[in-house]
Write a structure and sequence with these properties.
With about 350 residues, the protein is mainly beta. The protein is built from 4 helices and 19 strands. It starts with 10 loop residues before the first helix and ends with a strand. This is Apple domain-containing protein.
C-alpha cells in the first residue's frame, strides 16, 4: 500500500505502454472490454494501491503499472479520486460492485472459470471460452444465466446492460434483475419517438439498444432462447406505458407461461393473440394480451386489449405496438423473455 510518486515508470514509458495496451487490434486489446467496466473490487483484496498525481492520473497510467507487475491480473481506477488498485485475480459477477466512479479492466490470459475475460485466450481452464465476456463452457449466455448461474442477482442494478452469447456471437442484452424480474431479457421495445419499424426489421428491432452497432437481442434471438431447454415452459412479459390521459394513464403488465414448442411471436391473419391475458388495475382496461405479428396492412405488431364497457361488459380492441407509419397508441411498449 502507498502513494504513487511516478518513479517506477517515467511518464514517456507509461505513455508508450498505454499505446501498446489500449491501441492494439480489437482481438488483442488489453485492459478493455470485459463483462463489467463500471465497477470495483474490494479494496481490502488489492495487492497494491496508489493515488496518482493530479494531471497525470488516468486509467491508461494505472493500466501501465498493472502491466509492469508480473502478478497483476486486473485493476481498478477511480476517475474522481485517481486511486489505482492492482489485484492478483480477476472479477466475476459475484465479486464486482457497480459504480460510475470506478473503471475495471483485466489483463490478458489471467481469467479462471466464470471470471471476466476479453477473448478466448484469456481463459485458463481447459474447455472454457470467452462467451458473454465470461470464461465458461456454456453454449449460451442470457440474462437468466447471468442472474442465476453466474450469481449476479440484483447486486448490479434493477435493469442493466450486459454481454450475452447466442448463436456463436457476443450479444448485447438489456436485463431486468430483481426478485420480481429474476433475469428477464428485453427482446422488443418500441417508443413513440423510435425510428420506423418495418416487416423486414421487426424481428431484429429493439429500441433499448443501438441498431447497427452490435448484435443485440430481438425477436429472432428470443426464439433461440426459448429452445435452449427441451422441457417445461418459458415466460413472456409485456409492459405498456400508457399516455397521460384519464383512461390510459399507467403501466400495463401482462405475463404468460408458454410451452417450449410455442413461438415467441406468431403471425396471424385475424385478431387472435398468442397467450393468455392477465389482469391489471388500470382504470377501464382489464387486461392486455401478448403481442402478435400481422402479415399485412399498416399494423406490424398488435396486442388485444380488453376494455371495460358500460354495464360491466368487456370488449376487445386491437391496439398496434408497431406500425409502418410509426403511429403508436402507447408511450412505449416492451416485451421480455425468461427462458
Amino acid at each position: 500500500m502507498g502513494r504513487l510518486r511516478v518513479t517506477r515508470l517515467s511518464l514517456p514509458v507509461a505513455l508508450v505502454l498505454c499505446g501498446v495496451l489500449l491501441h492494439l487490434p480489437p482481438s488483442t486489446k488489453a485492459c478493455q472490454e470485459t463483462a463489467w467496466t463500471n465497477g470495483y473490487l474490494s479494496a481490502g483484496t488489492a495487492m497494491e494501491t496508489f493515488t496518482l498525481r493530479p494531471g497525470r492520473g488516468s486509467a491508461c497510467a494505472c493500466c501501465s503499472f498493472c502491466n509492469s507487475n508480473a502478478n497483476c491480473a486486473s485493476l481498478n481506477y477511480n476517475i474522481k479520486s485517481r486511486e489505482c488498485l492492482l489485484f492478483n485475480y480477476v472479477a466475476n459477477y459475484t465479486s464486482i460492485t457497480a459504480s460510475s466512479d470506478w473503471r475495471y479492466f483485466v489483463m490478458p490470459g489471467r481469467s479462471q472459470h466464470e471470471q471476466f475475460c476479453r477473448e478466448d485466450s484469456d481463459c485458463l481452464q481447459s474447455g472454457d471460452s470467452c462467451r458473454g465476456r465470461v470464461c465458461t463452457d456454456l453454449s449460451a449466455i442470457t440474462c437468466k444465466v447471468i442472474y442465476e448461474v453466474f450469481g449476479s442477482g440484483d447486486r448490479l442494478g434493477g435493469e442493466i446492460l450486459a454481454y450475452g452469447w447466442m448463436n456463436g456471437k457476443d450479444i448485447r442484452l438489456i436485463c431486468r434483475m430483481t426478485t420480481e424480474w429474476p433475469g428477464f431479457t428485453s427482446i422488443f421495445r418500441n417508443r413513440k419517438s423510435s425510428a420506423s419499424i418495418t416487416r423486414d426489421n421487426v424481428r431484429s428491432y429493439n429500441a433499448d439498444l443501438s441498431a447497427g452497432t452490435e448484435v443485440q437481442a430481438g425477436l429472432e434471438m428470443a426464439d433461440l432462447m426459448r429452445q435452449l431447454h427441451s422441457e417445461g415452459q418459458y415466460q413472456l412479459r409485456t409492459i405498456a406505458k400508457c399516455s397521460n390521459s384519464p383512461a390510459f394513464d399507467g403501466e400495463l403488465v401482462t405475463e404468460a407461461r408458454l410451452d417450449r414448442g410455442q413461438p415467441v411471436f406468431v403471425e396471424v391473419s385475424d385478431a387472435t393473440a398468442a397467450g393468455d391475458a392477465s389482469q391489471t388495475d388500470v382504470a377501464s382496461i382489464t387486461s392486455v394480451s401478448l403481442p402478435y405479428l400481422l402479415p399485412s396492412e399498416e399494423d406490424i405488431v398488435n396486442v388485444k386489449i380488453n376494455v371495460e364497457l358500460e354495464g360491466a361488459a368487456v370488449g376487445q380492441v386491437a391496439m398496434p405496438l408497431a406500425r409502418t407509419d410509426r403511429w403508436l397508441s402507447f408511450e412505449s411498449v416492451a416485451v421480455f423473455i425468461r427462458e
